[in-house]
Structure formats: C-alpha cells, structure tokens
C-alpha cells in the first residue's frame, strides 16, 4: 500500500487522454492507487465520526463502452453492496479540480426528505456551513455553487 502524497498535474491530465481504453488504463495505474491510499486513512476515520462501519467503493466505470470518463472518484458508505442508494462521502477528480463531497444523489430514496429537512432549517445550515463550501446540483458535472454566494431563498 502506497502512502498518499497528494495529486499532481499528471493526475489531472489523465482526463486529456483520448480513447476509453487508454484513459481507463491511466486511471487504474495513476489514480486508483492514490484512492486506495486515501481510503486506508479515511475509511476508519469516517467510521469513527459516523458511528457506522464504512466501506470503500472506487469507481470502476465498468459500464462504459465508448466514452471515456470525465471524472473519477472513491466513495465511502455504510454498505458493502454499494453507495449510490445511500448518503455517502466522495473524494474525486475532474480535469479542473479535486472534490470532496457529502452526497445524496438521485438513486438515494431519502433525497427528498433530506432536502425537506434542510429547507426547514435554512438559517442553521446557512450559518453553519463555511462560505467557501460548494453545492453541486449535478454530481456528473464540475460546476458548483459557492455556499457564500447563495441567499436563503
């Protein structure tokens, strides 16, 4: 197991490699070992903080047959079977930046009730979340809205 020493330009340049097979090979050889090193550190920490056993899920992009991925990630959830149907944590890369997210995505059945809970307590989360954090409307795209730029509406 390697020690995680950070990401560098060559890691982000993986997304400039043309062709599915070529990009997938670069992701497997360059990025996946770094995600494994991050997981060795984060999985026990997240388990301690959440009180749940956490499991690592490194994106394999297995369903892709033509288009190379524009991003990649490692996710952490309290299920061995998957993470998309659960609130989860992600560390990942787009060509332009690193992201660290708490995510509740489209496959999660508590997405709507979670949003309703947030809406009932707008003053609290507006104050408690740091202004430089961001909200992603679509986890498949690199764009995000800076928390400090959002109104309570």
Structure description:
This protein has 153 residues and is α+β, with helices and mostly antiparallel strands. It is 34% helix and 18% strand. The protein is built from four helices and six strands. The strands form two sheets. Strands 1-2-3-4 form a four-stranded antiparallel sheet. Strands 5-6 form a two-stranded antiparallel sheet. Strand 3 and strand 4 form a beta hairpin. The radius of gyration is 17 Å and the shape is globular. The mean pLDDT is 94.
Alpha carbon gyration radius: 17 Å
Q: How much of the polypeptide forms β-strand, as a percent range?
A: 15-25%
Strand order of the largest sheet: 1-2-3-4
Residues in helix, %: 25-40%
**End-to-end span in angstroms?**
46 Å
Give the H and E element order. HHEEEEHHEE
Largest sheet: 4 strands, antiparallel
- The low-pLDDT segments are none
Mean of all residue-level pLDDT scores:
94
Principal-axis shape: globular
Structural class by helix and strand composition: alpha+beta
Number of helices: 4
Number of strands: 6
List keywords for this structure.
alpha+beta, 4 helices, two-stranded antiparallel sheet, globular, 153 residues, four-stranded antiparallel beta sheet
List the helices and strands and how they pair.
Elements: H1 9-12, H2 20-50, E1 55-58, E2 71-77, E3 88-94, E4 98-103, H3 111-120, H4 122-128, E5 134-135, E6 145-146
Antiparallel strand pairs: 1-2, 2-3, 3-4, 5-6
């Amino acid at each position: 197991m390697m020690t995680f020493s950070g990401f560098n330009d060559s890691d982000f340049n993986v997304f400039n490699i043309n062709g599915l097979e070529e990009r997938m090979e670069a992701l497997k050889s360059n990025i996946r070992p770094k995600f494994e090193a991050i997981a060795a550190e984060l999985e026990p920490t997240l388990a301690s903080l959440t009180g749940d056993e956490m499991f690592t899920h490194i994106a394999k992009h297995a369903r892709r047959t033509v288009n190379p991925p524009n991003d990649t990630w490692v996710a952490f959830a309290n299920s061995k079977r998957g993470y998309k149907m659960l609130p989860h944590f992600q560390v990942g890369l787009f060509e332009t930046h690193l992201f660290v997210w708490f995510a509740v995505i489209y496959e999660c059945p508590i997405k709507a009730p979670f949003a309703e809970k947030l809406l009932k307590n707008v003053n609290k989360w507006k104050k408690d979340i740091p202004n430089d954090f961001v909200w992603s409307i679509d986890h498949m795209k690199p764009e995000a809205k800076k928390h400090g730029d959002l109104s309570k509406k």
